[in-house]
Specification:
alpha/beta, 13 strands, 15% strand, binds zinc ion, hydrolase, membrane, carboxy-lyase activity, transmembrane helix
Length: 360
């Protein structure tokens, strides 16, 4: 296998086939329907309010009438949510309407709680992971899952990866920084090493982004703008830290089409070629590392998606939506297919999601 190229081997192919059947794609394929696997959807359990833990940053839910709720953190409402965040039947109805065959469930990013004391984050992670596993069990042909671990304690987080795999989850979601620690920091090395060994994907999601104060105007608009910039910071940190060079089989999925990262990558490549300190620190060309990440398709404009495919390769793209939040890409499968007709997004998803099983 060549570093910098698609890391597929005979085990991946075997598990590609097993995943293909396990998610019911074969039947869809027989009917000439290409299955849509939505890799980027979020979950909030409806029972956080019952938990005994008490800490001002512990998330709680205020349930309202009509299946609505407010997620409250530090005494302030963080976001209004509704039953789509936890109700399996409702999700399946929405999936049918949206043309989605399989959703990959992951925690609402704010619940990753990298700022909580590690033992509380560990407790929350267990609740989240158990909840996702239970949702999958209700309709295993419609759902798969990505869990969370207490990243603020790297040793504990690394240990918990084994539990994630035993639960049948396909990977873990982490923020774009761990309460200020960049993702390329050497202290996270044991975590990446174990994730690679277990074949678990690492889903990097914007969280507590930098730069909000540089924009002004409506808070929601600023948040929409800085998320993709934040992902670019995290991806560049992973690049600068040589993480994918050191762990060539590690699968890292970047949110929202990698945010601004694919756009700034040619500039980074240019700088890498001309700046000796950088090229000494990183052996692999940034343009090659760019092709080692995975990317979802949440970029909203077909032209942006075509640019992304051109930059990173057609085998690194998987369909995503950000369901059930307001910013979600509607009809994610149709959107992706309309922009890029010849890409097998479902086959890509099967490789990405199947790699975890290959090394059990
Ligand atoms: Zn998201």
């Amino acid at each position: 296998m060549l570093a910098g190229r698609r890391n597929i081997d005979k085990y991946d192919i075997f598990y590609f086939i097993s995943i293909f059947f396990s998610v019911g794609l074969a039947q869809s394929w027989g009917g000439f329907h290409v299955a849509v696997v939505d890799i980027h959807t979020h979950v909030v359990p409806n029972s956080l309010a019952d938990l005994p833990a008490r800490h001002r940053l512990w998330p709680t839910l205020e349930m309202h009438e009509g299946g609505r709720a407010a997620l409250v953190i530090d005494g302030k409402p963080f976001r209004e949510i509704d039953a789509r965040s936890w109700d399996v039947e409702r999700r399946m109805r929405d999936m049918a309407a949206d043309g989605t065959d399989v959703q990959v469930l992951s925690p609402m990013p704010e619940l990753l709680s990298h700022w909580l004391p590690a033992e509380l984050a560990d407790h929350l992670a267990r609740i989240m992971n158990d909840h996702i596993v239970k949702m999958i069990a209700r309709a295993p042909d419609k759902f798969q899952g990505i869990g969370m671990v207490p990243m603020q304690d790297v040793e504990l987080a690394t240990k918990r990866l084994d539990d994630i795999q035993k639960q049948g989850l396909r990977g873990v979601e982490i923020g774009t920084h761990i309460d200020g620690v960049p993702l390329g920091d050497p202290k996270l090395t044991p975590f990446y090493a174990r994730a690679e060994e277990l074949g678990l994907l690492v889903f990097v999601h914007p969280l507590h982004p930098a730069g909000l104060e540089r924009i002004g105007g409506p808070k929601e608009l600023a948040a929409a703008a800085v998320f993709p910039l934040e992902t670019a910071l995290a991806a560049t940190s992973l690049l600068a830290g040589g993480v994918l060079e050191r762990f060539p089989r590690l699968n890292i999925l970047l949110s929202h089409g990698g945010g601004a990262f694919p756009w700034i990558a040619p500039r980074i490549e240019f700088a890498w070629k001309m700046a000796a300190p950088w090229s000494k620190a990183i052996a692999q060309a940034p343009s090659e590392t760019l092709k080692r990440f995975w990317y979802d398709t949440i970029v909203y404009a077909p032209a942006s998606l075509r640019f992304l495919a051109d930059q990173v390769g057609s085998d690194r793209l998987v369909v995503g939506s950000d369901y059930p939040f307001a910013i979600r890409q509607p009809g994610p499968g149709a959107f992706a297919a309309s922009a890029l007709k010849d890409i097998s997004f479902d086959a890509n998803a099967a490789v990405l999601l199947g790699s975890g099983r290959a090394r059990q």
